[in-house]
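Morning, I've got a small favour to ask if you have a moment. It would help a lot if you went through both lines with me. Thanks so much in advance, here it is.

***
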Amino acid sequence: MRSRAPIIFRDRTDAGRQLAVLLSGLSGSGPVVVGLPRGGVPVAAQVARALGAPLDVILVRKLGVPWQPELAVGAVGEGGVRVLNEDVRRTAGVRDHDLAAVEDLERATLERMAQIFRRGRTPVALRGRTVVVVDDGIATGSTARAACLVARAHGAARVVLAAPVIPLPTLGELQGVADDVVCVESPEPFFAIGQWYDDFTQTTDDQVVRLLHASGRTEAPVGKDAPAGAPRDGPITIGLPTGAALPGDLSVPEEAPGVVLFAHGSGSSRLSPRNQSVARQLQARGLGTLLFDLLTPEEAARRCSVFDVGLLADRLVRATAHLATLAPDLRAGYFGASTGAAAALAAASAPASAVGAIVSRGGRPDLAGPLLRDVRAPTLLVVGERDPEVLELNRRALAALRCEHELVVVPGATHLFEEPGALERVADLAARWFTTHFDDPSLAEPRTARAREDQNGTGWDP
C-alpha cells in the first residue's frame, strides 16, 4: 500500500472546506454547526456554509481540579449548564466548596466570553438537533470533550465532533463522547496543531464576531457589488427555469483577475475531491473558483443526463451568466474534466461567449463535435501519458480547434492523475494558463491560432 503525504492546510478556511467534504452527508439532517472560539469558528463557518446550517459558538469552560487544573472534573456552559465526572471528583477528593470556587471563576469567564462574542444575539437552540462541534484541531481533547458534554446537556439529539486534525490516540479516546468523530488527518506521532497549517495566525475576537454576523447571509456578493468588508466567498445558488436550483461554492481571493468555473464529468458534483484539490491550488495562486453541481440530484441519477453534453453546457452558460451579475469586473474561465471538458468547450463555442480561457483535464473534447471549430478562448488540453485512448482523442480534437490551443502530456500519469505529483502538475499548468490569459488585454481582439503539443510534460511556456 502506497503511503500518502500528509495534508497541510493553507489556513483555517482551507481546513474548513476540506472538513466540510467529509461532513456533507449531514446536509439533509438539519444540523447546527457550533465552533469553539476562537480558532474553531473560521473552520466551522466553512462547514456551516457547505451544509446550509446555522452557525454559532459553543461557549464552555472546563472545571479543573484545583490542585491539578489540567485534570477536568467537569464543565460549564451557557444557560446554567453543568456536567460533572463524579468518578474523577471522588478519586481526586474534590469537596463541594472547592468545586464551587472553581465554578464561580469559570462562570465569570464564560459570561465575559458571551458578552464579547454574542453581543446580544440569542444562542441557537440545540435541543433535538444534530449538533456539529468544530475546532481547528484537537490535541488532548479535554476542551472538545467538554463541548460535546455541554451540547448534550443542552438537549442535542446527536453530537458530531469534527476537526481538521486529531492525533490518533486522542481520536480513539473521543469516540465515546460523541456519536461520530470526523477529521481529515489523524497523525501519529503528533507534536502540535500548528504544524499542520501553513498559516496558523491567531484568530481575533472581532473575526469571530464578523463570521457569526455574516452567517445569516445566503449568498455572498462579490466584485463591484460587494459592500466594503463583505465576504468574497461562500455558497451561491444558480436558478433553473424549472424552479430548481444548483448549489455552488464561490471563492474569490482579493485582487483575483478572474474566476474559474469547474465543469465536472461523469456524474461528479462540486464535492469532487480532485477538482476541489485543483481549486485550492488555484485559489492559492490568487485565482477565484466556482465549483457547482451541473445537475439536480434527480438528473444525476439518470445516466442519460450525465452524458448529455448539451445539457451540461447549458448549465455552465447559466452559471457564467449568474457569476457575471455577482462579479462583473472579473473574467470567467472553464476547467473541465472528462465529459465536463466537452461541456466547457461547447459552452465556449456560443457566439456571445466571453470566456477568457479553458483547461481540460483528461477531457473528452471529441464529444463537443463540430462545436470545437467555434471555440475562441485559448484552450489547454492536459492528458496523462498512460491514458492512451483519451490521449488519441485529444490529438484528433486538435485538428478541429481554431483557437490558440496546446496539448500537454503529463509523464507517467493515468486518466485520474492519481500518481504522486500528477494532479499538482495539472493545477500548476492550469494556474499559469488562466493567469496569463486572464491578464492578456488582447483577448478582446481576434487571436491567431497557435498549436503546440508538449510531449515531455514540461508545460506551456508563455
